[in-house]
Amino acid sequence: MSLEWAETIAVFVAALAVYVRANVVARRPVDPFRPRWIPPVPLMGVAAVVAILALAHMISLATGTPFKGGGP
Q1: What is this structure's pTM?
Q2: Which domain holds residue 25?
């Protein structure tokens, strides 16, 4: 396994871990005396985008061609 694979898998796993942790925090009841410093829902969105980009990079590493969108 090359270093690019290891880095991409590490980023993918970290993004999934952040998403799962933010999901757990979002499901807990809100304590009015302890406000949340980082809102979990936007954090889940950012983690999902990072995970999708890492997955697209893994596809391009596996196929050997750059992953392109469906644009013209």
Answers
A1: 0.83
A2: 3-29+37-63
